[in-house]
Specification:
By secondary structure, the chain is of the alpha/beta class. The protein contains 11 helices and 18 strands.
Length: 349
């Protein structure tokens, strides 16, 4: 089969490798219908040291179950499924508390043992916890928009939702979203769904912020740094934002976040931090009684209700995809996202 590997910064290749096989009774093999390139995939694309063996890439898919191990009970051959980006058993103490990304028995895609999901076939460990069946969808007649929206539930939309959920977005609140990438736009959509009164989107790419307005943003701030902070403070009468959703992961975005959060407010981060240390002292969080939340989204905890919202047409998060490539063209998809020629790239296997 064909699969995607990264050999170093900017070096993405499609390789022919053996088909995956069942190695544990809890495994399933899934034929990939759609995968995608994640914004977090661009971090190693920028900085990964050379690796002579290559690292398997991809952690988002929708697909069809081809085979299951003897212990798998919740899915079977032929089922149309979504794979959350984290592997989990859905039964351990942390999974029961809705923290599937901390699953005691869980792991991540993109290792030699698990492989990546930007491929024709994928082995899914702990399939009973790591796959969720999509009911009532006929792949023979399903349109691309529906497939795109379902694909976002493997990571990007529900990562945005996680930011809003941990930020305690609710009616009457002002929310500021930092970042106009796919996760930031998803956070806008999720904040709208949760009833935010005002949603300020900090982004400077008009094609993206236009989609943010379509998703529910009430204001757009293109300025960054101190100018951006001043603009948001002006929009909020000097009070700041009740909730700040940081969807970038770089220190300047975090600095903007604590600059605009309202006293007593919450900063919720879902951009994977590309820094080890960040201010938490009097001038950033402590003096404002501000709280810091966020982390890897436990997508599995949110999947069933999100699937229902997509199927009934309540949300259409698949609009974040603005380019589709075949598996052979995945390297060009990485380059397009890196060059900001594409917001988010979908992959047809």
């Amino acid at each position: 089969m064909k699969a995607t590997f990264m050999y170093g910064a900017g070096d993405v290749r499609i390789e022919n490798v053996p088909d995956p096989v069942i190695t544990a009774p809890t495994d399933a093999i899934v034929r990939v219908i759609r995968a995608c390139i994640c914004g977090s995939d661009l971090h190693p694309y920028h900085s990964m040291p050379h690796n002579e063996h290559g690292v398997p890439m991809g952690h988002e898919l929708i697909g069809v179950v081809e085979e299951t191990g003897s212990a798998v009970t919740t899915v079977r051959k032929g089922d149309f499924v979504i794979a959350p980006f984290a592997i989990s058993d859905n039964t351990c103490a942390f999974c029961r508390e809705g923290l599937h990304t901390s699953c005691i028995h869980g792991s991540w895609y993109g290792t030699p043992e698990t492989g990546g999901l930007q491929a024709e076939l994928s082995r899914i460990p702990l399939a009973d916890g790591s796959l969720v069946k999509v009911p009532g969808v006929d792949l023979a007649t399903a349109d691309e928009g529906l497939l795109a929206s379902l694909l976002t539930l493997s990571d990007v939309y529900l990562t945005g939702y996680h930011a809003a959920h941990l930020g305690q977005v609710e009616p009457g609140k002002t929310v500021t979203v930092i970042g106009d990438g796919a996760v930031g736009l998803s956070a806008v959509l999720a904040s709208k769904q949760l009833g935010a009164e005002r949603i300020i989107l900090m982004g400077r790419h008009q094609s993206r912020t236009d989609l943010g307005i379509r998703f529910g943003a009430t204001d757009v701030v293109a300025e960054r740094g101190a100018e951006g902070v001043a603009k948001v403070m002006d929009l909020t009468r000097g009070e700041g934002s009740h909730i700040v959703l940081e969807a970038v992961g770089h220190l300047p975005a975090y600095e903007q976040a604590y600059g605009i959060v309202r006293p007593g407010g919450i900063i919720s981060r879902v951009g994977v931090p590309q820094y080890e240390e960040a201010p938490i002292g009097f001038g950033s969080l402590f003096g404002k009684n501000a709280r810091l939340a966020g982390g890897p989204a436990p997508v599995r905890a949110y999947l069933e209700p999100a699937i229902a919202r997509v199927l009934n047409g309540e949300i259409n998060p698949g609009l974040v995809f603005d380019r589709t490539v075949t598996l052979d063209d995945v390297p060009a998809g990485y380059a397009a996202m890196d060059n900001r020629e594409a917001l988010k790239v979908m992959v047809t296997a």
